[in-house]
Amino acid sequence: MRTARFLLAAAVSAAAIGAVGTVPAGAAPAPESAPAAAPAFVPADDGAAVTAEERLDERTYDLTVSSPALGQSVKVRVLVPHGWSRDAARTWPVVYAYHGGRDTYVSWTRSTDIEEVSARHDVMVVMPECGNGAFTDWWNYGMGGTPKWETFHTVEVLQLMERNYRAGTTRAAMGISSGATGATTYAARHPGMFRYAAASSGIQHMTKPGIPTLVMFTQAFFTDTGDPLRVWGSPVLNADNWRAHDPYELAPNLRGTGLYVSSGTTGLPGEYDDPAPGEQFVVHPQEVAAGDTTRDFVARLRALGIPVTAHIYLNGWHDWKSWEQEMHRYWPLMMAALGVATDG
């Protein structure tokens, strides 16, 4: 109960910190032209379709996707490798990159050097909008319906990319914060979909005492979720649904999937952070919870004999500065799992 009280009290300070940490200054690259109507693309099985395509530069495309699963149109950013063509005879391995809460599909290119890193490899990177959707098809008091974020990410986006952009079926998933939970959850709920999953600072034990309270409190007060019971239901009355979306509980399904997980544990600023005067002792409570549950997850995997590369460190805020460094650590491992040569 002491842990639960600490996490709930600490969550109150999250409003000042932000759900996914500090957003660095800088904007997305200026488009070369205004959005244009997309060519006649093949829709997904449920009718999801690319309705507009905007080319930002030689490698970067922003797509508008009309999604029945979400009941709205949302964006997807795509980085294509050098030599890519939508008319090519071949396909390319794909990394699906998920952002955290209170952020958008532009976050990976805005806040990391993923454009530079991926340019050295023959791989596509797909960065879909994730909203504050918790990477699940919402429970909605047992009625289902929209939003269905899991369906959007694992069915609609995959089908649209594979049918229209020469994306292959050799895939990896990576994410930060809630996107890290999404990466491991999707890999576990869809065995074989991803060869590799990399997760930085995510909640990896959703049903640990105290964690559901923290998660629902954050959803209710610091995001646009509204009623948090709509997401997975009650952690007591609908405990089966919570367990069905808990990476810790789903860990046996990850056998055969390459795994990298990381998190700080103290929530204090680390070597990559730049605290302002007086912020040296500011704690990011999200990182404390992520570190606690990630340690549980790693212990569970190792008890099951499932290989995992883990980087559990002390200090480091819940912030892109740390997450970019983690990406540099796992990127070569992920490329090796996808069979993509690393050339620097």
How many strands?
A: 10
> What assembly state would you assign to the polypeptide chains in this entry?
single chain
CATH fold type: Rossmann fold
Rg over CA atoms: 19 Å
The rough form would be described as globular
Number of helical elements = 12
Signal peptide: 1-27
Keywords: Signal
Protein name: Esterase family protein
InterPro entries: AB_hydrolase_fold, Esterase-like, Mycobacterial_A85_antigen
Description:
With 344 residues, the protein is of the alpha/beta class. 34% of the residues lie in helices and 18% in strands. A 10-stranded mixed β-sheet has the order 1-2-3-4-6-5-7-8-9-10, with helices on both faces. Strand 2 (49-55) and strand 3 form a beta hairpin. The protein starts with a helix and ends in a 6-residue tail after the last helix. The model is unreliable at 1-30 (pLDDT under 50). Residues 1-27 form the signal peptide. It comes from Actinomadura rubrobrunea. This is Esterase family protein. GO terms for molecular function: acyltransferase activity, transferring groups other than amino-acyl groups.
List the helices and strands and how they pair.
Blueprint: H1 2-12, H2 14-17, E1 36-37, E2 49-55, E3 60-67, E4 72-79, E5 92-98, H3 107-111, H4 114-119, E6 124-128, H5 149-164, E7 167-176, H6 178-189, E8 196-200, H7 211-222, H8 229-232, H9 239-243, H10 247-250, E9 258-263, H11 285-303, E10 309-312, H12 320-338
Parallel strand pairs: 5-6, 5-7, 7-8, 8-9, 9-10
Antiparallel strand pairs: 1-2, 2-3, 3-4, 4-6
Helix pairs in contact: 1-7
Structure in a nutshell:
It is built from twelve helices and ten strands. It has 344 residues and is α/β, with parallel strands linked by helices. The chain has one domain: Rossmann fold, CATH 3.40.50.
